Amino acid sequence: MGVLVLNQDFTPLALCHVNRAFLLIFNAKAELVSESKSRVLRSISQSYAYPSVIKLNRYVNLPYRSVILNRHNIFKRDQNKCQYCGQIQDLTLDHLIPRSRGGKSIWTNLVTACLSCNAKKGDKLISETDLILYKKPIKPSFIMFLKNLNHQKQNEWAPFLEPKSHS
Ligand SMILES: [Zn+2]
User: Fold this and answer.
1) What is the pLDDT of residues 66-100, one digit of tens each?
2) pLDDT of residue 20
3) What long-range pairs does 137-140 form, CB within 8 A, spacing at least 24?
4) 106 CA distance to ligand 1 centroid (A)?
5) CA of 86 to the centre of ligand 1 (A)
6) Residue 128 Cα, ligand 1 centroid: separation in angstroms?
7) What's the gap in Å between 90 CA and the centre of ligand 1?
8) Cα of 35 from ligand 1 centre, angstroms
């Protein structure tokens, strides 16, 4: 089970393994913000809070943290579904503006497509086909990728992954 690591200013930074989180706390590099309500860590003689969210004691400066553009991450952004027909098998990448027409290999021009939709689209623009794009591709932020980890996401994380309110 992953642990959400917050920067010293409470912004989400990364996920780490519970053992690492425990050591960071133990070595006073981080403090426990929120513990899992359903689990405890046990040693032979003691039990400890099972970290769910920890916060680093020193600020880590990572101004250019972004999600790497690759096939795996584009599939992930698109929830492993063809963005034209929703199929989840035989996936490949489609350039919205085809490369032959100067389309670039960037987040906003690449979508997940199945082989058959990809073949239908070929060197055409969507408007020249009967395909309908499910959603406009965007460049994901690191935090968005954390939010997408639904299978590991824990309730304790929610307050830290929501946008800050401007009150
Ligand atoms: Zn398709």
Assistant:
1) 788 999 999 999 999 999 999 999 999 999 999 99
2) 92
3) 137/77, 137/78, 137/83, 137/96, 137/107, 137/108, 137/109, 137/110, 137/111, 138/77, 138/107, 138/108, 139/66, 139/67, 139/106, 139/107, 139/108, 140/67, 140/73, 140/77, 140/107
4) 20
5) 6
6) 16
7) 9
8) 42
Of 8-17, 25-34, 59-68, the least confident: 59-68
| Same domain assignment for residues 147 and 124 | no
- Domain count across the chain: 2
126 CA → ligand 1 middle, Å: 13
Tell me the residue range of the domain where 156 lies. Answer: 2-63+143-161
pLDDT, one tens digit per residue, over 106-115 is: 999 999 999 9
**55 and 79 belong to one structural domain:** no
